[in-house]
Amino acid sequence: MDPYSLKKLNQCRRERRAAILLTDLGDGRDRVVVEGDLVAGNLGEAVASAFRSGKSGVVEVDGRSFFLNVHLPPPRLVMIGAVHISQALAPMAAIAGFDLHIIDPRTAFASPERFPNVRLDAEWPQEALARSPLDAYCALAALTHDPKIDDPALKAALEAGCFYVGALGSRKTHARRVERLTEAGVSPAAIERIRAPIGLKIGAASPAEIAVAVLAEIIEALRSRGLSASRSVAA
Prior knowledge:
Blueprint: H1 3-14, E1 19-24, E2 30-34, H2 41-53, E3 57-61, E4 64-71, E5 76-80, H3 84-95, E6 99-103, E7 119-121, H4 125-131, E8 138-142, H5 147-160, E9 164-167, H6 171-183, H7 188-191, H8 207-223, H9 227-234
Parallel strand pairs: 5-6, 5-8, 6-7, 8-9
Antiparallel strand pairs: 1-2, 1-4, 3-4
């Protein structure tokens, strides 16, 4: 590997940025492609697909062979609210490979007994997220139904460009949420990114079923990143 490529990969790891070490198997030359870099043509499509899937492998493009070694930051799920849904969602998300972080200033809910082996901050989201900033490989699920807790976290997630932002509540609840976020200076385009009501529409009723719907929606968002943009360009 070119020393410059190694240095760039290590920098991407530190900054939680996705990158691919792209090696031409014909001449052995390599380079690092950071997610968001422009790569034209069929090779660009293969690179975009690899970023979505997270899978490394050989691709054949225009008569040439390339090895795409994919380096993605571990996806992180931040749950705002140490509630029953979070209790069901946390172990499932851990099995799916997510780093977990639960934030809830209500100490009666945010206890290690209810959430063993999970990073837990019993404080306001503004304080916890100042120490552990959100990024593009974070999903945020706002689950408290309390605007004082949920709204600042939602605003922070939208500003950070999280790949998934979801909020619990009915359409009427979300309409009031939209009003509050608009008054707080969040743009309509950003607010449109919030998945509300949260979770895929599978008729979920119990906390465990809602957790399944939420996790499925998060995984869908993770694996479809960039598709809408690429389709718009193609159109």
